[in-house]
């Protein structure tokens, strides 16, 4: 069987083009709830009390989890958007070989997590079996648990998603039972009166909660790549994780406070802890299953990390080896005693790395994070990115210094994240300004020639598509020319790196109305070549002063856009757009008359505030701009608006379109338009 072909056993691959979108919003919520309502999170809650009062501890848990989950949500959103795993995404920032460093570090960290999870699962199962039969052998049951973990992991993400839903339900029931039992046997409200004994300051406690959230970041894209929508990836992850943390850490903090008030010794064995309150046996089975499913997530992501470094390896081999290593590590004496330090070390290692990736994607150039760049053409990536490694080293050094040499009173996690990300952003912008960012280029991209830069394709209905074939499809703008009896229509103008009218004689043959569908750089580069450019009034100010920030050139323009660079002297870091001499504004409902053809202007805000579509009712032709086309949509740039996007989608859904010519990718039918809008509206629930 081809190793890239999905199967029922060991089916998952790194391929982003055929990712199975199986997670709805409730499914994503349940997965992250089940993942984090687990004994290790309960143990973290136990660390906070009695060093802090219960109320103080829970306030820090709420704030720390709500803030700490943000980077995880962002990495998960990157996975949902691209379909790529976390460590494949790292190639865009660190280079094809450089990404091996975070991948190997992640692999080791997840194996260490698996040690802890395997031991806890073995302890829970051992308690249950001993209660029923009198036989006890923690080592044996740990081995059995890890064997089951490997079997589930080999089933792939579908098996994990199903297991996490069950785990979430069982752990919620267990939490409810625990709180009910505590309320019946003890004065539960008295936990708010427990006096803080010190030892763990507020800053360190807050940092532990933050570090707990950060420890999940490496897994985020591995699972959220399967989310059906961005709303599921963002709201489901944030809601599920925060709810789980409040429940689990709240349970740990409450049990810790009550055990001390009742003169019971604290223990890291969860079943022993719960047996003190009369229901250790059923709790043992539930905790066993919960820890088991969380461990499966660790083994699964560790396997994907290994595959990102050795992509030809079949899934089952590293999964099996990692399972064996986890068993051996779980038998290390006293491993749970180092749990707090382990959380801080994980944060120190991963916070700088993921700060760089988040800044790279959301602030510098997300267009480089594609299957084409990072998998199909991975061999053409640079070996490593020295700027990223220098910033990572600086961030890791700060984490070490602020955690162990000169600890900050408010913890190191957030300061390290912010400082590292800011340092990387400044360094990358400076690098581009002085000579170009070559991280994602092939170092020796060929130069195209002006005579062949543009390609014209004649379509039906007197329409010609003009595009720039040396630009990769994701970035390549469609320029639409429509023939009329008295005058022609031109919609959009491409990148502008090569003069458009000079190279495409069709555009100088007759009177022509020039229209910009919106003002992003890939659509207005040559607008200044025409006597007058029409644009919606909401973006007229951008067209009059098309700086690189507002037109998104700063965010997307890079050598990675090209299969061949424009002819000299083009350099992307020197790119500037000239404004048109005259600008005429358009409004919704206005008619563009070509003599025998009439196009209605439809204002379609959402992708950008002044986006428009042009509708010819007589022929059923829709020129849709960038609101919708048959490819990955961009819905979250600085002036996008989700509610406007949904309203515009609904408006286009009502049109009896026959054929649609979008701002990117090939044209498509009206039936396809309606199906895509229906899917979009369902996934976004707006």
Architecture overview:
This protein is α/β, with parallel strands linked by helices. Helices cover 52% and strands 8% of the residues. It is built from 23 helices and 13 strands. It has helices at 25-36, 39-48, 54-82, 86-94, 100-133, 138-154, 157-185, 202-214, 220-224, 230-261, 270-275, 280-309, 316-330, 339-364, 371-376, 386-405, 413-435, 500-503, 521-524, 540-544, 553-556, 642-653, 670-684; strands at 455-458, 463-467, 479-482, 488-491, 512-515, 533-536, 583-586, 591-593, 598-603, 612-616, 621-625, 659-662, 668-669. The strands form 2 sheets. It has a 7-stranded mixed sheet. Strands 8-9-10-11-12-13 form a 6-stranded mixed sheet. Strand 10 and strand 11 form a beta hairpin. The longest helix has 34 residues, at 100-133. The protein is elongated, with a radius of gyration of 28 Å.
């Amino acid at each position: 069987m081809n190793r890239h072909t999905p199967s029922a056993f060991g089916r998952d691959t790194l391929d982003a083009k055929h990712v199975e979108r199986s997670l709805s919003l409730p499914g994503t919520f349940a997965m992250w709830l089940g993942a984090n309502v687990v004994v290790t999170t309960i143990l973290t809650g136990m660390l906070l009390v009695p060093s802090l009062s219960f109320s103080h501890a829970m306030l820090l848990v709420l704030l720390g989890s709500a803030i700490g989950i943000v980077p995880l949500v962002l990495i998960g959103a990157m996975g949902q958007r691209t379909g790529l795993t976390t460590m494949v995404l790292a190639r865009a920032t660190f280079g094809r070989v450089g990404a091996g460093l975070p991948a190997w570090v992640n692999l080791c960290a997840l194996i260490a997590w698996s040690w802890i999870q395997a031991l806890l699962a073995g302890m829970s199962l051992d308690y249950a079996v001993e209660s029923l039969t009198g036989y006890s052998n923690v080592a044996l049951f740990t081995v059995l648990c890890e064997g089951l973990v490997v079997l589930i992991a080999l089933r792939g993400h579908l098996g994990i998603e199903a297991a996490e839903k069950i785990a979430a339900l069982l752990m919620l029931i267990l939490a409810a039972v625990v709180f009910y039992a505590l309320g019946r046997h003890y004065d539960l409200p008295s936990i708010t009166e427990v006096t803080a004994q010190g030892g763990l300051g507020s800053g360190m406690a807050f940092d532990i909660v933050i570090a707990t959230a950060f420890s999940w970041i490496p897994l985020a894209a591995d699972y959220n790549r399967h989310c059906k929508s961005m709303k599921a990836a963002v709201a489901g992850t944030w809601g599920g994780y925060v709810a789980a943390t409040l429940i689990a850490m709240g349970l740990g903090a409450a049990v810790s406070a009550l055990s001390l008030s009742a003169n019971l010794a604290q223990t890291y064995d969860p079943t022993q802890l719960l047996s003190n309150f009369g229901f250790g046996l059923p709790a043992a089975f539930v905790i066993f299953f919960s820890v088991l499913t969380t461990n499966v997530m660790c083994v699964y992501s560790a396997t994907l990390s290994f595959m990102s470094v050795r992509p030809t390896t079949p899934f089952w081999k590293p999964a099996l080896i990692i399972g064996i290593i986890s068993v051996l590590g779980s038998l290390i004496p006293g491993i749970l005693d180092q749990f707090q330090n382990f959380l801080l070390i994980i944060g120190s290692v991963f916070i700088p790395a993921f700060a760089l990736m988040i800044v790279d994607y959301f602030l510098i150039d997300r267009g480089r994070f594609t299957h084409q760049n990072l998998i199909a053409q991975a061999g053409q990536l640079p070996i490593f990115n020295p700027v990223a490694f220098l910033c990572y080293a600086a961030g890791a050094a700060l984490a070490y210094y602020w955690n162990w040499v000169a600890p900050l009173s408010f913890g190191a996690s957030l300061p390290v994240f912010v400082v590292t990300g800011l340092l990387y952003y400044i360094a990358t912008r400076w690098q581009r300004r002085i000579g170009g960012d070559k991280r994602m280029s092939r170092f020796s991209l060929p130069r195209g020639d002006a005579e062949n830069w543009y390609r014209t394709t004649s379509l039906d209905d007197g329409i010609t598509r003009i595009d720039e074939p040396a630009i990769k499809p994701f970035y390549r703008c469609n320029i639409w020319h429509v023939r009329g009896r008295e005058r022609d229509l031109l919609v959009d103008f491409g990148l502008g790196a090569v003069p458009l009218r000079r190279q495409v004689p069709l555009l100088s043959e007759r009177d022509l109305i020039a229209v910009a569908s919106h003002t992003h750089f890939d659509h207005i580069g040559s607008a200044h070549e025409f006597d007058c450019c029409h644009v919606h009034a909401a973006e007229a100010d951008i067209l009059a002063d098309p700086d690189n920030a507002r037109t998104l050139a700063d965010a997307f323009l890079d050598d990675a856009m090209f299969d061949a660079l424009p002819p000299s002297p083009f350099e992307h870091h020197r790119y500037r757009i000239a404004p048109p001499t005259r600008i005429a504004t358009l409004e919704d409902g206005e008619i563009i008359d070509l003599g025998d053809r009439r196009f209605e202007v439809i204002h379609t805000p959402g992708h950008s505030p002044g986006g428009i579509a042009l509708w010819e009712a007589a022929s059923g032709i829709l020129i849709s701009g960038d609101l919708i086309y048959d490819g990955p949509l961009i819905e979250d740039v600085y002036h996008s608006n989700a509610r406007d996007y949904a309203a515009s989608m609904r408006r286009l859904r009502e049109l009896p379109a026959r054929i649609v010519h979008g701002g990117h990718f090939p044209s498509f039918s009206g039936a396809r338009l309606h199906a895509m809008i229906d899917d979009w509206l369902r996934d976004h629930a707006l």
